[in-house]
Amino acid sequence: MRRLAPLALAGLLASSAPALVDLYATDFDAQGGWTFWTGHSSTAWGAPAWDVDALPADPAIIRSAPSSLNFNHDVHGLVDGTWDGTARSPVVDLGRALADPELSFWYTLYGEGGCNVWVDVSARIVHANSGAVLFEECISDEGVWGTWVEIGLPLDRTWGRVQVELHYDSWEAWNSGFAGLSIEDLRITDPSGAAVECEGEPQTGGAPGAALELSGSASISTGALTLAGSGFPSHTFASAFVGTAPARIPIAAGVRCISPAGSQRLWIAPTRAAGAPSWTLELGAAPLTHVATVGLPLYVQTIYRDGPSANFSSALVFTPAP
Q1: Which pLDDT score, from 0 to 100, does residue 16 have?
Q2: Can you tell me the mean pLDDT for 242-247?
Q3: Cα–Cα distance measured from residue 288 to residue 300, given in angstroms and rounded to the nearest whole number
Q4: Which range is least confidently modeled, 56-65, 87-96, 112-121?
């Protein structure tokens, strides 16, 4: 687990290279498919509960307006008592990632003692079908209400379809700080994920531009990627190429979105009747070894025969992993 103070995070973002690709992201402007359970009986104040709102009306409960995911009594924060509750996310498919993803979120909490003392707040990853706990990390920490801390937890792409669970459990009967717990800006990011660098231009016959999709592993040492095309003209050929820098160069009926400087041509693939060519990209083998570098963006695009002219598909950018 990594715990970053806000100033440390700012420095990290300033020095980072390629952007991360979100598999899932929410800033809790709305409940957005999250489900909640609360344990223990209510008191005169009523039972505390997970909710997505701006209550109690305390600036410390929100990091990004207008609301947060929080566990409290709405009016009084978290009143003294022994409480527990669980918030569960929608299903996220980690198998879509090209490298092992990370779960990150911001939290603010005041409790009497840290993990396994008086208050346990834990982040769990559970299997979407079986409910089995695949990963659990206690994040409780003493602190001043209103101080936001970012948490980063490593995940495993082979876990497949999962849900995030956030669990609050307190067995103290006094001095809860009248504050509770608040969560903001939760993301599951793929450090190597493929993003669209540019869209393909419409085809000469009026059809939409051809598109690409990447799946598999972006590991240079052990992985292989499948580059799959869709929407290409049928019964023709497409040629893939990669490079290390973007560009915008109009050619024939399309736009080349990868700089020719240092780019590498790959293989020609048939589009067949379905207009769906495919390529296997082994980043640790030639010619990809000439351009693939761990941690630096790599761009991939294809050129294809489009009636009497030539055209280019969409282009993708991703980040090779170790």
Answers
A1: 36
A2: 97
A3: 11
A4: 112-121
Domains of the chain: 2-190 (2.60.120.200), 195-318 (2.60.40.10)
pTM (predicted TM-score)? 0.85
**Least confident window among 58-72, 173-187, 224-238:** 173-187
Mean pLDDT of 29-43: 83
